[in-house]
Task: structure prediction
Amino acid sequence: MGALETLEARGFVKQLTHDEEIRAALGDGPVTFYIGFDPTADSLHVGHLVQVMAMAFLQRAGHRAVAVVGGGTARVGDPSGKTELRQMLSEEQIGTNTAALKRQLARFISFDDGRAELADNASWLMELGYISFLRDIGRHFSVNRMLAAEAYKQRLEKGLSFIEFNYQLLQAYDFLQLHRTHGCRLQVGGDDQWGNIVAGVDLIRRLEATQAWGLTTPLLTTASGAKMGKTARGAVWLDAEKVSPFDYWQYWYNSDDRDVGRFLRLFTFLDEGRIAELEALTGPRINEAKRVLANEATTLAHGADAAAQAEAAAQAMVGSQASDDLPTHEVHEEAPLYVLLADSGMAKSRGEARRLVKQGGVRLQGEKVVDAEQVIVLADLAGDGVVLRVGKKRAVRLVGHS
Result:
């Protein structure tokens, strides 16, 4: 099976600019391709993983990846898929975010032996002269055509800044620059990037008299209709300081039954035979497939040891046994239970903590809590501590610390 056929079979392909040419090129020999990530935060999140895994699968098929961290385009802000102007970041913050993203990408793709390269588009965009850029690049873009793009039409209703309007030119120039310096022939991105990718393909055709290609991946939602990588508690980040490996493992384990097969194809490297076996499980046995999904996904993001510890913590949570594997919150003085719920991160606020208790969703050492004002003293938390649970999916170990 060729590289494109593998991507299609696993659900990575939404649109192609040149189906037959891309299929032939990816089947014939190494192709240099790129995927860009703007460093608008100091971590990638699960919503980025479709592009990250597409990059990893293409590299495993023998193709060369250029991972572009948009230190330059982050200073502008991409309007694609956005309803409001993105917050402008300082140069210091962009630099910090760029370094963090580079470290995370290295967990999924190999940079050994020239198989992949990291590039920061600030290295070429920041040197551009405004007048020369407009003359050499801007003249190839039709304002009418740009305004017809879905990304811009959505923003025109609320207002589109001139700085954002330039984003398509900059992304197209990225593709041109990478084509000239790295021999890059293919750009891969989310389907909301289709207009920007096509603009780059067209720019290369005009200026280099050669054909480049574009491939977009679908914008995923879960079976319940929720945006991929979003929960009631916020984004599911790959940074262990933002989302612990335990919570990351839980995110995948708590996948909707209808999503398990699809997620195994997109977010693990398991072969189709093994996925088909897991996908065929029904009833309570589907939890085995979810366990495999959670372990594989967590291993990729955080390593095998973190995945094993997260699974052990999940088992301890089910049994309401205090264990070092569980996320731990130190308690330094006696406090009402609703305070500990909020302070440990099990509730967003003390008000929400009270509501959770009132709704019967909180258990302490397996026993339902009926009084949010119940005071927990340090003596109650001696030894290994106690397990505080909210619902069936979240737990924390409370330990006393005098």
